[in-house]
Write a structure and sequence with these properties.
globular; 209 residues; 7 strands; 2 domains; five-stranded mixed β-sheet; two-stranded antiparallel sheet; Aminopeptidase; single chain; binds zinc ion
Length: 209
């Protein structure tokens, strides 16, 4: 099986597993599948369960130089809930006009398939490895539950493999965490005249809405 055929086959099987993020559906199953696939390709694979009980998978290339720059390739196996109104079963993937359809086919199972296939190819072709690549496939990315796990990862560079293949970019979908102080006086909505809203003190430039 060529690399592309391998990727498509793996992607088909990954999309067939419903890994809905919010209910942690089949997290164990897909983590086991990924470890199995990686080991079958003679890669080093292990499952790490975080303090929330979510399994994540770490994959390495056996002969990679450990002391070289560690490049983490980070992606995820969980998917956003499929919701209603699909024309087909979102977990029964199919190919039409050269495209593979199904929940998570792009975000982010395509990246898992591509990365495992790439690691496998590097190993099989005996290509020289100058870096220390580590593929980290997490659960709970879409729900945010996996954040505490991947925040602790250490390496020289992290390449986030997510969604489509539009190219390599620096920074996307940033997260800003703010503490907002609202000045005013709280009041029940039935007695709004008792309250003092931030809007009223807007002229002081304290806050705006
Ligand atoms: Zn994603």
């Amino acid at each position: 099986m060529g690399t592309v055929e391998y990727e498509i086959d793996l992607l088909m099987r990954l999309v067939s597993v419903d890994t809905t993020s919010t209910i942690r559906k089949n997290f164990e199953e897909v983590a086991d599948l990924l470890v199995y696939e990686a080991r079958k390709a003679s890669l080093i694979a292990k499952r790490v369960v975080d303090d929330k009980g979510i399994p994540h998978v770490i994959i390495k290339i056996p002969k990679a130089p450990k002391k070289s720059r560690k490049i983490i390739f980070l992606t995820h196996y969980d998917v956003v809930p499929a919701g209603e109104d699909w024309d087909f079963d979102p977990f029964k993937p199919f190919i039409k006009d050269g495209k593979l359809y199904g929940r998570g086919a792009a975000d982010s199972k395509s990246n898992i398939a591509a990365a495992i296939a790439a690691f496998k190819e590097v190993l099989e072709e005996g290509l020289p490895i100058k870096i220390n690549p580590v593929l980290v496939i997490i659960g709970g990315e879409e729900s945010g539950e996996g954040t505490s796990f991947y925040n602790k990862l250490e390496g020289n560079v992290c390449v986030v493999l997510d969604s489509g293949c539009y190219g390599l970019s620096v920074g996307a979908s940033g997260v800003v965490s703010l503490i907002i102080k609202v000045f005013g006086r709280q009041a029940h909505s039935a007695y709004p005249f008792l309250g003092k809203t931030p809007y009223m003190i807007r002229k002081n430039n304290f806050i705006h809405r």
